Amino acid sequence: MKKLFVVLLAAVLSVSAISVMALTVVEEIIDVPVVESPEPPPEEEPVEEEAETVPEDKVSFLNGDTLKGLLVSVDPKKGGVTWQSPYSVKPLEMSLDAADRVVLKPRGGAGKKWGSASIHLSNGDELWGDIISLGSGKLELKTWYSGKVEIHRPMIARIKVQNRDSSVMYEGPNSLAEWKTRQSHGRGKSWEYKKGALYAASQYPIARKIEDMPDKVKIEFDLKWRGSYPGMGISFFNDNVNHQSDCYTITISGSSIYLYRYSRNSGSSHLGNADYRAFNNGDKRGGSFTILADRKEKTVALLIDGQMVRQWTDKAGQAHDGNVLMFYPQNQNGMQISNIKVAEWDGQVPTAVGDTGEKSTEDLIRLANGDKVSGEVLTIDNAAIKFKASYADMDIPLTRIVEIIFAEDKRERARRNQYDSKFTMVNGGIVTFDLQKIMSDEATGQSENFGTVTLPLSAVRELEFNLYAEKLSGDDFEF
User: Fold this and answer.
1) pTM (2 decimals)?
2) Buried b (16+ CB within 10 A) or exposed e, 388-416
3) What is the pLDDT averaged over residues 230-257?
4) CB neighbours of 23 closer than 8 A, spacing ≥ 6?
5) End-to-end CA distance of the chain
């Protein structure tokens, strides 16, 4: 048996060797390499379209909980929010007293013409539309979302007309692409752009060149932060988009505010500090900042919420000739920057209302060529404004006007109501009113600003309830 196995094995090996030799001989005779037969091209398979994610509304509650689904209706008198959840067969009836806000899925408002003017009210609301007329008692505004809206004149703080101000070098932000950022190590983007604002996710700077930055410059921006205290550096007249080089830098660290001069040759120099007491208790979460700087005279002034914080004069340094504006977060709590405007400054330091305790008694018009006139706005009609100054009566076309600021001593403010709800529009405007009902994607209510309100949810991005209740800060990146 053992001999038979050996014989069979030898036979198999002999056959294998002969086969290999034969293949080698064939290859040498033909002199063509053996190649594998090419596979036929695969038939084109139908491309499966990815299932689109169905947009959903999202409701958040005062305790921090969230729920996705669809807003069906709201009835404050019955105290409830009707919500359709994908996990519930029947709509849920939820307490309005527990609801915080609803972020709405798009409902067809994108691409609509918002108008040529934004109306800013004394309670912080902002409406967009085309001005029809203004009289002693009301302003008529044409909107696509609510037709003609009548706004009580005493409720108007200012009107911004969308005409180009020749003194403005930059106004935004408009996108993240127009700013220079650096990648955060292991954390993705260091900055994000959403809904007209820049969001800092880490301690990395963001900067951009301001073309034709003037020697006398006015830099305005709104800053919000999470946590108890702000931490931000603002560099200007900088000559480098990557770091602080030859420039001035205002550093905000809680209630302490410092001005530094940076130089490539001599490093940094501390030019003085100020204490802004409004930031002391940690309750304030944002503010409007204005920097007034003169590069030749080497002077810098800072105002917060219209109040003068400090004026500095650099007596030793050289004038900086850069045109870079940079924001540099100093903590990791998260910062939001919006409403940035860089414009030529007339060199006059304004008298802040907070310094004198007095309210302005005259209306003010800012013109597209940089001029300003004060007096009384009489009427607006046929796209022109009748204006009475102390030295002349004027008829000014709206196409020449950038902003109308109404006298503070004549303003009124809408009173608070239990069911006041704030509607943030898809274009960034805000409307607050005493909510009566939301039904069939339409909100109705009453407001001392403009009477009866009918607002389609197609014009709304987000709505907020229980405005005057104490709320959790949360960890969302939104502010």
Assistant:
1) 0.65
2) eeeeeeeebebeebbbbbbbeeebeebee
3) 92
4) 34
5) 89
